[in-house]
């Protein structure tokens, strides 16, 4: 599996004995598909807010993890989950009120046409279900996705996740399209250029005789290096897919729940409503719960004709966690916080880029920002080695972050939503120090 800045074992002799022992025990029992972050892996024993702590009490600033959307170990989530676990935890075939209450709240955050929800445990399951529904609804098989997308790890989701690496085959009924790259290409042409590539993909699938079932796009294109602008560039491509009889599936697992600071969902930045939306990771702040939200037109035929049941999907404990997450995002004004603090991060990164030309581009929205590293600012040559060095040097300063993108040269800045202005300043100061240190070597 491809993963930027993964621990490769080359520095294991320099680790302390406790870390070497734990890695040895881990390797003895966990399959080789697992990966650790960083050349010096982090061993957290607890988390609180936007911080993680190791066994020695060292504190780390989390600038990466979107799963604990409202912060690590949030007391309101803990209280709601604990209380529900002590009362009832069963499945959706019994008539329980909490899942109805939550569904009403969740759907109230979507455009009116997106009026039905199905619960799963993981985003991968939600993506898998979305593909099944799209294919059943349209009678076609072909899927369009982006060239470095990540949508999950079930068999069907992995077939549309080329970022899993060269040994993970893309499905035979899948066509990949390049995302807009407004750092290198004309941003005013981004929408039509992307739509042109989608139309070519549609033609390819039609020539193969499989037709177009759906296009699935992560609304911030995070694994493709965070491609956020120009706002609205997806609309012409979606119109082309609809004209060909396909559905648009918006993957909101990473950009959703207010992270982009403008609205609750990333697709809203593009001015056109999806047929299906998949939710996951941050939905339960780490408790496994995910969902598919769709229009009645897109979901009804599948729902009437095919039985779908997920034993743990939408169980009362997971729903309690999900409900608590909505409470905190709403009560603590975390969508606004993402906008304000994200703007502070964006401005600070642009100041650093002006002083350090190896930062070729800064882009993003809210608390989902990318800083792209290049070796030649004129040629805009991707520099994954520089990004990896920055990630590992920040880790040594106890700032946790990662890299992404097709060339693994893009810092992916995606902290928990309570990230504060002071947290942003701490990150920017540490990054400035690392860049200065690197320049002096």
UniProtKB/TrEMBL annotation:
Signal peptide per UniProt: none
Segments forming a coiled coil: none
GO molecular function, one term: pyridoxal phosphate binding
InterPro entries for this protein: Aminotrans_3, Aminotrans_3_PPA_site, PyrdxlP-dep_Trfase, PyrdxlP-dep_Trfase_major, PyrdxlP-dep_Trfase_small
Keyword set, alphabetical order: Aminotransferase, Pyridoxal phosphate, Transferase
PROSITE patterns reported for this sequence: AA_TRANSFER_CLASS_3 (PS00600)
Pfam families: Aminotran_3 (PF00202)
Family: Belongs to the class-III pyridoxal-phosphate-dependent aminotransferase family.
PANTHER family in the cross-refs: ALANINE--GLYOXYLATE AMINOTRANSFERASE 2-LIKE (PTHR45688:SF13), PTHR45688
Name of this chain's protein: Putative class-III aminotransferase
Organism encoding this protein: Gordonia soli NBRC 108243
């Amino acid at each position: 599996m491809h993963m930027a800045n993964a621990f490769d074992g080359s520095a294991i002799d320099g680790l302390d004995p406790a870390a070497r022992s734990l890695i040895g025990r881990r390797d003895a029992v966990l399959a080789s598909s697992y990966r650790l972050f960083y050349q010096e892996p982090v061993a957290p024993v607890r988390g609180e807010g936007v911080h993680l702590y190791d066994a020695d009490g060292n504190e780390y600033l989390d600038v990466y993890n979107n799963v604990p959307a409202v912060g690590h170990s949030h007391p309101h989530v803990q209280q709601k989950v604990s209380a529900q676990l002590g009362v009832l935890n069963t499945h959706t075939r019994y008539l329980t009120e909490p899942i109805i209450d939550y569904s009403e709240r969740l759907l109230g955050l979507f455009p009116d046409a997106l009026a039905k929800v199905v619960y799963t445990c993981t985003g991968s399951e939600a993506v898998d279900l979305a593909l099944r529904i799209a294919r059943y609804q349209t009678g076609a098989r072909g899927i369009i996705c982006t060239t470095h997308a990540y949508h999950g790890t079930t068999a069907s989701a992995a077939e549309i996740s080329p970022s899993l690496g060269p040994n993970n085959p893309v499905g035979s009924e899948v066509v990949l399209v390049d995302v807009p790259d407004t750092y290198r290409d004309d941003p005013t042409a981004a929408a039509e250029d992307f739509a042109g590539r989608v139309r070519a993909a549609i033609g390819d699938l039609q020539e193969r005789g499989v037709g177009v079932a759906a296009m699935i796009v992560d609304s911030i294109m995070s694994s493709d290096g965070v491609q956020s602008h120009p706002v609205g560039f997806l609309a012409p491509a979606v119109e082309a897919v609809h004209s060909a009889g396909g559905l648009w599936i918006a993957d909101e697992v990473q950009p959703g729940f207010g992270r982009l600071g403008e609205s609750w969902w990333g697709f809203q930045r593009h001015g056109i409503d999806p047929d299906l939306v998949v939710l996951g990771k941050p939905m339960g702040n780490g408790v496994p719960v995910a969902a598919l939200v769709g229009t009645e037109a897109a979901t009804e035929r599948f729902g009437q004709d095919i039985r779908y049941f997920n034993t743990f999907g939408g169980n009362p404990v997971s729903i309690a966690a999900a409900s608590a997450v909505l409470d905190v995002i709403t009560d603590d004004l975390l969508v606004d916080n993402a906008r304000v603090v994200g703007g502070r991060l964006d401005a600070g990164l642009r100041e650093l880029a002006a002083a350090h030309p190896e930062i070729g581009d800064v882009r993003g929205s809210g608390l989902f920002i990318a800083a792209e590293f290049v070796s030649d600012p004129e040629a805009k040559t991707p520099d994954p080695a520089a990004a990896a060095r920055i990630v590992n040097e920040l880790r040594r300063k106890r700032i946790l972050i990662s890299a992404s993108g097709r060339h693994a040269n893009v810092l992916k800045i995606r902290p928990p939503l309570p990230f504060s202005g002071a947290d942003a300043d701490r990150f920017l100061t540490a990054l400035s120090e690392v860049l200065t240190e690197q320049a002096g070597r």
